[in-house]
Write a structure and sequence with these properties.
Two copies of one chain form a homodimer. With 250 residues, chain A is an alpha/beta fold. The first copy, chain A, is built from eleven helices and ten strands. In chain A, β6, α8 and β7 form a beta-alpha-beta unit.
Chain lengths: 250, 250
Amino acid sequence: MLSKNKIKYIRSLEQKKYRKEEKAFLAEGHKLVGDLSGHFECRLVAATSTWLESHPDIKADEIVEVSEEELKKASLLKTPQDVLAVFRIPETDPGTRDIAGSLCLALDDVQDPGNLGTILRTADWFGIRHVFCSIRTADAYNPKTVQATMGALARVRIHYCDLKDLIGTLPDMPVYGTFLDGKNIYGQELTPHGLIVMGNEGKGISQEMEKLVNRRLLIPNYPQGEETSESLNVATATAIVCAEFRRRML
Amino acid sequence: MLSKNKIKYIRSLEQKKYRKEEKAFLAEGHKLVGDLSGHFECRLVAATSTWLESHPDIKADEIVEVSEEELKKASLLKTPQDVLAVFRIPETDPGTRDIAGSLCLALDDVQDPGNLGTILRTADWFGIRHVFCSIRTADAYNPKTVQATMGALARVRIHYCDLKDLIGTLPDMPVYGTFLDGKNIYGQELTPHGLIVMGNEGKGISQEMEKLVNRRLLIPNYPQGEETSESLNVATATAIVCAEFRRRML
């Protein structure tokens, strides 16, 4: 049974303040909990008896069997699933050695939790193991983001840092960004390592970061020159760019 | 000034039932209202005096000057902007002649309004002029979808229909779909015309529709064979596929 205090604790993780205090985040659903357990320290699992019976190996500091009614009270989802879990937020060290030889993403104030989650899922699909987030980027451990990642958090490491400082530690690193006046991505050399900067939903890449981009790309619209939306959604643009980088490496 | 009834009317358009009854949808913000006016019959504009002064040519059955306070009461956004407008939902006729020679999308029960909006924005970017939606696909005139389209509704026509029947009227049409056991998209012939089927967020393409797909594609992950997310977000996958089709035509 879940005490009132425990329910309050679980639900408090909707707020960044409490996630930070507790160094913990919430994940819901059998697929997601299954994907994340084993990758993160698990503090609490609250699940129905059916779920617990079919997962006898689950490891957590605390395992609570709950009724569906109780789960509803603790869940942040419209349609609660059979299980929710609280995991420890890992401390990450963006070691530059790992990074210099690989393809990474840098998110320059991406604000929407859903977009961030989708970007992490895309990064996972394309084998991008490090995503750097500016301090003002949405929190990757926001429950909305966690749910949208579909388990990518298990494989993609997220680092919050000053992106300028990061680039400062990576001399000669190709730094890519997409701009409406960039060069057609399909005609450009794309290196198997480098940093791809993606900007804020409304403002795109900040002026400060734009100065640090040394390879300006464009995802061409079609037919060219015709009236169209001003831009693509940031998660969409990230996906097209990542796909094109990886297409060259297959 | 907006009467209580008018505010109720505007806010009622959050619900599909009332949109259907009124054949009307809501759009908010100066960019979106600007993009859509001229393309749709405008029933009502409610805007601040500042906005109205800078848009003397706006045409609508009814134009109401409102204070920011009033706008807040009518708006469905967290941060209301200077203007909202109610437009008429157009009646569309999916004429097969237009379609047979072009590249179109078919959405097989895409459920999330945000995903749908992002897909329409992507379609616009890539010059896809017709998007066919199964009856159970989210409503394109849901305010969340409308806001996510970023004006694409002005250029992309949306048709709700039985997708099986549609394909029945288009013999010899290439019908593409992505599957985890499909063929690497980068190695396949992609025609400049055809129908690209995208499936539901949880279930993918339905069995019924799968039978009608005659070209099975795969967006390869990287590195191949490595553990990764099970799939991409549907709006993300749509973008990668559309980009690849158009890449061939540049």
